Amino acid sequence: LARASFFENFAPAERESIAARLNSRRFKDGETIFMRGDPGSTLMIVVEGRVRIGVNTAEGREMLLTIMEPGQIFGEMSLLDGQSRSADATAMGDTLVLTLERFDFTATLRQFPEAALRLCAMLSEKLRRSTDQVEGVTLHPVNVRLARLLLTIAAQASKQSSKPIAGIGNPRLKGNPTQRDLGQLIGASRQKVNFHLGQWQAEGIIARDGNAFAIQNWKALQAIANSDA
Ligand code: CMP
């Protein structure tokens, strides 16, 4: 729990009292955790693996909203507004989640006003990212959107010390975002993502080391992220 940013400011005794009310569940790579429209009764905390949050059509097309990393929570929206699950959640790689029942979640929020504020901050961040996603698709070309996404992923990776740098473009390694995933996050095709990554690699802006990637020329990538052409 100490790794989950939602709980990070809790005193150890408070964390222990919440930990006693948690259950754990394991999911295999690609397994559905819940689907949009399901009734929501639990909050979930990612411990191992990752979780894709997206919306899928009956024809198999997916809009990927975000990828939840260890320490992040999801499934809070339906607990707060009493509506059904707003998106699908699917395990990426073998995934372990902790679950907290609605009653215990709402009791926690009532007992710890700091937690309620923290949750508001998390929801604000989600809304902000959502606005950025819509803004990107509506107003910016793919190279700008992709540069922004890589910078965001890199910033997240460095915040979570134990986390490896996000893998890209290697579908053989279970649980890592592929080029297709990156494309879905920014509303672009895998081919376009592949084109820009290849170009940036040739220009020395990014370097690929097997499955991982590293930003070599931050200034150049930031310049692309802030450009509009
Ligand atoms: P809930 O609606 O219970 O189930 C789906 C979950 O996905 C939701 O709670 C949030 O935790 C998460 N979610 C839904 N929409 C978004 C979004 N646009 N960005 C990030 N996470 C989201």
TrEMBL record:
GO cellular component, one term: cytosol
Keyword DNA-binding found: yes
Protein name per Swiss-Prot or TrEMBL: Crp/Fnr family transcriptional regulator
Keyword Thylakoid assigned: no
Domain annotation Cyclic nucleotide-binding: ranges: 6-126
Annotated GO MF terms: DNA binding; DNA-binding transcription factor activity
Species whose genome carries this gene: Skermanella aerolata
This protein's UniProt keywords: DNA-binding, Transcription, Transcription regulation
Domain HTH crp-type residue range list: 140-219
